[in-house]
Amino acid sequence: MLAVDDLLAMPADVKSVDWPARDTIIYNLGIGLGPAAIEDEGKLRYVLEDRLVAFPTMATVIGMSLAIFDPKYGMDYAGILHGEEWITLHRPIPAKGKLVGATSVENIWDRGAEKGAILQTRKVVTLEGDDNPIAETRTVLMLRKNGGFGGTEEGAPRVSRPPERAPDNSITIATQPEQALIYRLSGDLNPLHADPEVAKKAGFPAPILHGMGTYGVVARAVVESACGGDESILASYGMRFSSPVYPGETLRTDIWDLGNGEYAFQAHAIERDVLVATGGRATIRT
């Protein structure tokens, strides 16, 4: 049984990390900014120490917490799916420094025994010694085997649909065959993304790209289109994961300008014509 009250009362799990420039470069390479920097000298700022900047979605891997997966909370690990990821950016993330991630459980919704539960965490990223947030991330997990505890579904996340018209822009980015092998160096060592035998046992023909790797690639498209390539003006960004991506596939992100600095987006894996990201929303500082 899911220990709902204990999860909601869990103290924030605070992780303090010495974040070197090297880890920023590794993250940027993991979301495919190496090939981008070769094609465009302006993007060398993502891979060279003397001008290094962090890409906004790096907030998701700073101070990652596994506290909610402690067996005492009763979560059925085999039934967990990463449903959505959202970030709010208060200011640019430093490319290096002593960074802190404080993660807590923000809400849990009950969809019933058949459908499972939904859990949302919130992580606040700060500089050590400075309580002013740099970024906040919200992770939505689908707990398919933990529903029916007597809670409510009211207020649970709902997917937003894009406008019923042609997108205002489409950005195509090719992922790299080795991309998951690089992205895993940012902290997610799940063999599903690296070992073909593990992938086959899980029902996939080959290792899949980390969902958060896909998240970063789609964010690159949003920054290119909505921000004119200036990652520093991205204020918020998030989406729902709808299907896995295989390293080497090409992603097409369709983007709709909603006005007032707001954008909707979704992404397809072109080779399979599969929707891999849906319900996307982003805002920029104007």
Describe, in plain words, how this protein is organized in 3D:
By secondary structure, the chain is of the alpha+beta class. The chain is built from 6 helices and 10 strands. The relative contact order is 0.16. The model has no long low-confidence stretch (mean pLDDT 97).
User: So, the CATH homologous superfamily of the largest domain?
Assistant: Hotdog Thioesterase
Number of domains: 2
CATH fold-level label of the largest domain: Thiol Ester Dehydrase, Chain A
Rg (C-alpha, Å): 19 Å
Task: Specify the CATH architecture of the largest domain.
Answer: Roll
Order of helices and strands: HEHHEEEEEHHHEEEE
CATH class label of the largest domain: Alpha Beta
Mean pLDDT: 97
How much helix is in the residues? 10-25%
Strand order of the largest sheet: 1-3-4-5-2-7-10-9-8-6
Number of distinct helices: 6
Which regions have little confidence, pLDDT < 50, spanning 5+ residues?
Answer: none
Tertiary shape: globular
Distance N to C terminus: 47 Å
- The strand count comes to 10
Keywords:
286 residues; alpha+beta; Thiol Ester Dehydrase, Chain A; ten-stranded antiparallel β-sheet; 6 helices; globular
Concise account of the structure shown:
The protein is an alpha+beta fold and 286 residues long. It has helices at 4-9, 21-30, 33-39, 179-183, 196-201, 211-226; strands at residues 13-19, 80-89, 97-110, 117-127, 135-143, 169-174, 234-241, 250-259, 262-269, 274-284.
